[in-house]
Predict the 3D structure of the following.
Amino acid sequence: MKKVAILGSTGSIGTQSVEVCEKHGLEITALAAHSSIELLEKQARKFKPKYVGIYREDKYKELKERLADTEIKVLCGMEGLCEIAAMKDNDIVLNSVVGMVGLLPTLTAIEAGKDVALANKETLVAGGTLVTALAKKKGVTIYPVDSEHSAIFQCLQGNKREQLNKIILTASGGPFYGYSYEQLKSVTKADALKHPNWDMGNKITIDSATLMNKGLEFIEAKWLFDLDPDQIEIVVHRQSVIHSAVEYKDFAVIAQLGVPDMKIPIQYSLLYPERVECPTKPLSLTDYGTLTFDKPDYETFKCLSAAIEAISRGGAYPCLVNSANEEAVRAFLNNEIQFIKIGEIVSSILDKFPKTEISSYEEVVAADKLAREYVRGLIK
Ligand code: MN3
């Protein structure tokens, strides 16, 4: 049985990953969270990992005190996350940290020769070149946890990669599907935090409402499956039953279907290539009756077109749009800007900076800083 370290264990993907490990008897060697010490303590007492990590350094002392009666070693900050990612006790690191923060732990895990179950899409968006090159060099596998990428990964099994034409990345369309630009101007935070099919954390729920999530997934797919941008077609599929599909040279299209429950892709990433019972519902196609497909509205949902433009231009642009989005979403959740502003801000950064290349982690950090300062300047 594989030994698993879970980064971001108190979030939506993290808690479901813990559940999957428990169900299948996978040993959890380490757990790390951003700031939710109460839940982290609970998880630590239940699963008794060797290490727990807390990203927010101001929470370290309290967590250490709470776990003082245990053998568990408490680590903190980015350093703590990276120490956990590289621990020799792990076979695989499940990274479900939110945002760019996940990049260094991913790189550290790969450098240490660990396989990575990747739920942190920003890792590949901001540092795709670095992550894929290092994974190749170290001979490690990145198992996608994102439902669409897991679907594509599953559709690629048993077929020849070079016989692939393209992938079809499905999108739910989010809560504002069919809205005009005018209508988007008056949506509220509560509206944006309601997703029709998936129950997720706040950042990704807003990203789903702006369609930035699909833009990030477009970039993620490019890196995971070594595709050109024109080999990726986005199709709006409201029911989230077909999680994505691939088309081969003979125009045969293979899709992966299932109920919208992240435990299926999480389990596949941790137990690959095994398929065993999952703690979810089976899919009943007749309950759905109709599946629909539509083209996305690239003009209204500016984040989506900006992300595609960014990866088509290459260099630091994907990192810039990602960091601009992280800052804009943070500002929106803090009631500092309106929903419609997120798309305007993210697309405006494309024309703000000339193209630079990314060849080191430091260059990613520099681009990230540039983007965040730019967005903060706009909001003030
Ligand atoms: Mn997804």
The mean pLDDT is 96. DSSP finds 17 helices and eleven strands in the chain.
